[in-house]
Write a structure and sequence with these properties.
Blueprint lengths: L6 E5 L2 H5 L5 E4 L3 E3 L1 H11 L4 H4 L1 H7 L9 H15 E3 L4 E11 L8 E14 L3 E12 L7 E10 L3
Parallel strand pairs: 1-4
Antiparallel strand pairs: 1-2, 2-6, 3-6, 5-8, 6-7, 7-8
Amino acid sequence: MEQQSAYKTTFNSTEELGRYIGKELGITPWLTIDQKRITAFANVTEDHQWIHLDEEKCAKESPFKSTIAHGFLTVSLCAKFMFEAYEVKDSPMVLNYGIDRVRFPSAISVDSKCRGRVSLKEFNITPQGVKYKLKVVVEVEGAEKPACIAEFLALMFVDS
């Protein structure tokens, strides 16, 4: 049976992390996506499309019947979810190296709760430390489909 409650995996070393290829690292607590967060993201990114901000128009014209979170807001939350899902104690720094694939199978309606389910897909030792790929699935409480499925690349530096 698939794990349903929030948990975080702590590793003492990158070597321990490397043994988790193909395994889930953690599930984050639920996070409510309210209009204040959506509006703040719209202001930062200057993406003021009505589907994110105009509650009255959405109620009448949107198939979602409410405002929805930006897709890139959802992707941005994946950074928070990754740090909440696992920790490697011998790493002083992790850098974002890129994103291989991102899909948005469904939307996050305002006031919905979402969470991240994080797993390790790849793990490669480099001269600086480790380059690895994480899969993050952003689940929406009560929804059949996830809001986002993304593959993130990271560089983890290791204390010498």
